[in-house]
Amino acid sequence: LARQVGHSKALDLNITGETLSPQEALAIKLVDRVFPQEETRAKTLEYAQKIANSATYATSNIKLSIMNGKEMPLNVAIRYEGELQNLLFRSQDAQEGLSAFIEKREPNWTGK
């Protein structure tokens, strides 16, 4: 929590037990989206479908880069991100994405 909202706000929330409204959570960047309760299921499914239909190999490397890179010194994280990016550029999905772009069609991602 401290990494996300800062030490001061994390201490305050934990010590006081204060709860946040969705708008307050959005304002301190604890969440990145807020929508009405009745839209929660549809919006969540829409988001999951978007991810499932994306270039999953690229998505997994992006997650690795962000999750692992945040714990590394900047110079190491940049090198790590570059290594992951090089793997992506050599992937079947990268070739498919480029072909689809040139052919003006939707890509058929395989996760490879």
Taking Cα atoms only, what radius of gyration do you get, to the nearest Å? 19 Å
CATH superfamily annotation of the domain at 55-112: Lyase 2-enoyl-coa Hydratase, Chain  A, domain 2
How many distinct helices?
Answer: 7
- Strand proportion, as a percent range, falls in under 5%
Structural class of the helices, strands and pairings? mainly alpha
State mean pLDDT (0 to 100 scale): 93
Note the gap between the termini: 34 Å
Tell me about this structure.
The chain has helices at 2-5, 7-16, 22-27, 40-52, 56-69, 74-89, 92-102. The chain has 112 residues and is mainly α. The mean pLDDT is 93.
Features:
66% helix, 112 residues, 7 helices, mainly alpha, flat
Short description:
This protein is mainly alpha-helical and 112 residues long.
Give the secondary structure arrangement, pairings included.
Elements: H1 2-5, H2 7-16, H3 22-27, H4 40-52, H5 56-69, H6 74-89, H7 92-102
Helix pairs in contact: 5-6
